[in-house]
Amino acid sequence: MWHNIEEKISSVKGFCLSSKYSDGKIFGQQKGVKTLGFIEIVSESGKKGFGESYAAIYTPELLPDIVKFFEQHLVGKKIGQKDLIEKICDIPFIGRNGILKSVCGSIEIALWDLRGKLLGKPTYKLLSKKYKKPPCYASGGSVIMTSKEIEQDVEKSIQEGFKAYKMRIGYQAWKKDLSRIKSAKNYLGTGDLMIDAIMGTLKNPWKLKEAIKKINILSSFKPKWIEEPLHPNDVHDLSLLRKKSSIPIAAGEAYSGLLEFETILRNKSVDILQFDCTHSGGIDLCRQLSLKCKKENTKCAIHVWGSPVAIAANTHLSYSLNNIIYLEIPRIKLDLSDHLWISKPKISNGYITLSDAPGLGINITEKIKEKFPPIKGSGFRIKK
After folding, report:
1. How many CA atoms, within 13 angstroms, populate the side-chain half-sphere of residue 63?
2. 334: helix, coil or strand?
3. Residue 124 CA, distance from chain mean position
4. Other CB atoms within 10 Å distance of the CB of residue 356
5. pTM above threshold 0.70
């Protein structure tokens, strides 16, 4: 079993890489690149495990120092220690949620990758004895795309093996957004359409009355869900909106730690709870959330918006759970993406299939670090 691994941790580091978008579609990214944050854990024998931090997209400069803080509590500890991550995150007042919890969870991902590599097994086989392929959807439809570009994006997604598609709204004029949604729906046919209002990202987010009005209009498109229709702070109003909405409400990517997620569940604020092990607080925490969703009779889906490391980690997580209704697969084409897979998963007929490569099936070499160095001032920002 993985918890019998006696080998110890020799080093833990956080680093960032910056990559251009091969399709040129950039929203909110400075310097024309997307900067992503990673964690590297090295064992005594030199094996390396990797994790990804979603928080680093917004604050790339902070990641190395936060990981360095945690390193002092990890070096010399056994890689198979069960409560290792729980112990280092047990910091009074500031360890329950926020960026420390987020990064701590990302360190845990690297630990699971390392465990799999040391044992020669894919991580999902260490997480559960029972596993299954999750349905997945293509996540594209940038808020800056035109209706024509949306059509092309949906068409490519279907060609790549997807049956469901998510697009973003809320940035362009309302009439243009409706036209964009219509284009997506027409080309998607009977497949599920998800609509993400990204109100946790945009300036001047919708308020309750506006959200109710717009959701009533959007209901004619029969989307699978409407995501983040209010700012993440508006938990109470989100509960009120859910009662009045004719479309299922989804949210979760903005939260971290059990406290924030339990608040959402207790207030019955969502129909679909979304979590992401690269930000929510790690793989084990997300597995706890899956169980809580079962008890609360709430559906759950997995959010992903990063590199192949984030895709791999969340896919392995989803394999180990039996109540995931959808796994998000971002369609962002980063120049570094193809360099990270040891064995790329396959998407067919709306499902994703992992290989049996050890760990998460990814690797970040020194050559990759040299090829994609971090660019200062490239964290996510929007002007409008």
Report:
1. 31
2. strand
3. 17
4. 11
5. yes
